[in-house]
Amino acid sequence: RRLVSGSNRAVGGALKCRARCLSSDRPKDETTVDDRQMSGDDSSTFQGHIPEEKLEVSFSRSSGPGGQNVNKVNSKVEIRFHLDTATWIPAVGRERLKTQWGHLVNRRGQLVLDCDEQRSQLANTRICLDRLRSLVTEACQPPPPGPDEATQLLHEKRRARASARRVEEKRARSQWRRFKEPSRIH
């Protein structure tokens, strides 16, 4: 478990905040982790559980306006984890995260999310975890079905007609320009 903080004083409070935030997302009586996910096997679907021990959470000072609060409180939250070793995300989801949200992946292969929208660490941590959960859920969804053969054929015909129309208009403009030129008699 790695926890990084902007100052030594915030470390004790950050651990409490992190534990409360991660545990309050789900009811206490509900089983949180599927046995397959606990063993590290790739399951075919994402169950919504994010293992807190796999995340690297850091807190720092937020940017922007806010006066004394923004200058004193480490309310900005940054969550990162190594995407290739995240066994709690199905392999298909990991690949889609790399392709669709590659701008969130750094050179070391870590997916990095941050949030400094709220004034408190707890609220920003929840927002960041919700974003991560929605990104992973969306990446694990199967892609929408493509158009059927009849629709594809219709699109191909429309593209061919549009292309032919563009070529004909180009030819007509060329002839009109030639017609407007003064004749050259030598």
TrEMBL record:
Q: What is its EC number?
A: 3.1.1.29
Q: List compositional bias (Basic and acidic residues) regions by residue number.
A: 25-39, 165-186
- Any single Gene Ontology cellular-component annotation: mitochondrial large ribosomal subunit
EC class: hydrolase
What residue stretches are annotated with the Prokaryotic-type class I peptide chain release factors domain? 61-77
Alphabetized PANTHER family for the sequence: LARGE RIBOSOMAL SUBUNIT PROTEIN ML62, PEPTIDE CHAIN RELEASE FACTOR
Q: Which family does it belong to?
A: Belongs to the prokaryotic/mitochondrial release factor family. Mitochondrion-specific ribosomal protein mL62 subfamily.
Protein name in the entry: Large ribosomal subunit protein mL62
The protein's organism comes out as Hyalomma excavatum
Taxonomy, top ranks, is: Eukaryota, Metazoa, Ecdysozoa, Arthropoda, Chelicerata
